[in-house]
Amino acid sequence: MKRQISFGQALATVVGSVIGAGVFFKIGTITAQTGSTSMTLFVWILAGIISIASGLTISEIAASLKINGAIKYLDYTYGRVWGFLFGWAQMIVYFPAQIGALSSIFGVQFVSLFGIKARYSNLIAILLVLFLLGINLIGTKFSSKMQSVITILKIIPIALIIIWGLFNPAQIPAPIIPLTVGTGHSFPTAISQGLLSALFAFEGWIVVTNLANEVKNPEKDLSRAIILGLSAITLIYVLINYTFMTVLPIDQLTNNNNAAFQASMKLFGQFGGKLVTVGILISVYGAVNAFMLTGMRTPYILAQDNLLPFSNKIGKANIHTGVPVVGAFIVDAIAIVMILLGNFTVLTDMLVFVMWTFNTMLSVAVIILRKREPELKRPFKVPWYPIIPIISVIGGIFIVVSTIINQFVLSIIGIGLTLLGLPIYYYMQKKNN
Predict the structure, then answer these.
(1) What is the dihedral sign for C-alpha 352, 358, 364, 370?
(2) What sections of 139-258 are H helices per DSSP?
(3) CA dist 211 to 6, 16, 207, 284, 387, Å?
(4) DSSP string covering 335-404
(5) Is the per-residue pLDDT at 140 higher than 70?
(6) Helices (H), 19-94
(7) CB-CB contact of 283 with 20 (8 Å)
(8) CB atoms within 10 A of CB 246
(9) Which 3 state secondary structure label does DSSP give 317?
(10) Roughly how many angstroms between the first and final C-alpha of the chain, as a whole number?
(11) C-alpha to C-alpha distances, 125 to 106, 109, 365, nearest whole angstrom
(12) Do 255 and 39 contact (CB within 8 A), yes or no?
């Protein structure tokens, strides 16, 4: 593959992958889980701190190892089976669930905005997947440039909501101290469940490592894109959620999937609210495109090592566009099945649980490699070592353990789908030998 992705395009992919539906649609879930404005805001800040710590930590590996993506980082540190399981989980759970869940939200908001019957929302979602598949098949360079444009466009409605909200003379009090939970909520449960929900809105940054072989200067640009992107995203999320809580009272936010639309209507009036909703649709569109751009490369990376059946087909990229065509069809076909099955919340919670299991392993990998290979050239070193990696590891363990305790069935399904890859791995190993 050609090195054709600039720092700006890599940064746009990070921001574009992360900022999508979560910032607009998770506020209702989180306020229901916390019951207070102070705990809601604290959960967003905590999710940002853990994500930045994880980004800083994994950036050291991304800059040090001249290999393509987090799959290879796990291969290098723990052995091939762990890299395969991570790639397998990305291929059948993470990317299809992201694409499916976000496309479903796009469909629901689209039919609501334009007064179309609700039963057509899934059709709109599937058409979006097929349309973006066609765009991405044109070529990496074209789709990544389009991602840069979409990222700029999606910041516009967010900026409008934040600026108008912060200077809104009719602000509702949204106390951020003392740190409390609502009546009937327990402190540990509010933090654990709220954090799991908030982290969905931060999901996506690690997928930029799949583009390592296509970034012009990966040693510097990859880590810079991850760190700057996550820092900006955390600030945006805290400000926009604070704005929502100063526009709508918490009882109107709780379990409200239309909070962003209703807040926009209050701030800008009916026409302005609809205009901002169009901006939200663009934001979700950009997130779907970013996950498609990076997701199609997961089957390709696995097939390059002959770890999937029909690897000779899956592991090929189009000679003219550099696009792994079969990988794109695999991920998008599973996404369409998930759209038809439905359930946004279950999909998002499961993908957060599965991905943070591997993210935690990647954070531990930095500590392992520091001891195992002290002479390894490290163009970027995680600052305040080992404090930052420890924050990342503790945060990841907390997320995984609290999910197992609070959502046992969901965690078992996530683990089961991941372990389904083991028979395929050992079959391919035997076949290769």
Answers:
(1) negative
(2) 140-166, 187-202, 218-247, 250-253
(3) 11, 14, 8, 21, 28
(4) HHHHHHH--HHHHHHHHHHHHHHHHHHHHHHHHHHHHH-TTS--SS--TTTTHHHHHHHHHHHHHHHHHH
(5) no
(6) 22-25, 27-34, 37-64, 69-78, 80-89
(7) yes
(8) 18
(9) coil
(10) 27
(11) 6, 10, 38
(12) no
Write out the DSSP string of 201-228: HHTTGGGGGGGTTTBSSHHHHHHHHHHH
Give the pLDDT confidence score for residue 384 in this predicted structure: 87
d(CA 221, CA 339): 35
Q: What angle do CA 9, 288, 124 make, to 5 degrees?
A: 145
Do 279 and 156 contact (CB within 8 A), yes or no? Answer: yes
Contacts of 285 (CB under 8 A, 6+ apart): 106, 128, 132, 150
How far apart are alpha carbons 40 and 193 in whole angstroms?
11
Spell out a b/e string for 417-428, using b for 16 or more CB atoms within 10 Å of the CB, else e.
ebeebeeebeeb
Contact 333, 102 (CB under 8 A): no
Report helix, strand or coil for 278: helix
Contacts of residue 57, Cβ cutoff 8 Å, sequence gap at least 6: 362, 363, 366, 382, 388, 389, 392
Average pLDDT score over residue span 32-61: 89
Q: How far apart (Å, rounded) are the C-alpha atoms in residues 280 and 17?
A: 14
Looking at residue 210, its pLDDT comes to 57
> Could you tell me if 205 and 57 are in contact, meaning their C-beta atoms sit under 8 angstroms apart?
no
- The single residue listed with the structure tokens 């050609």 is 2
Mean pLDDT throughout 117-135?
Answer: 91
Q: What digits encode the pLDDT tens for the residues 85-111?
A: 999 998 998 899 889 888 988 888 888
Number of Cβ atoms within 10 Å of the Cβ of 267: 19
Amino acid at 248: L
pLDDT digits (tens, 9 = 90+) for 372-384: 999 998 887 888 8
- Between 159 and 425, the higher pLDDT residue: 425
pLDDT of residue 147: 63
Q: What is the predicted pLDDT for the residue at 207? A: 63
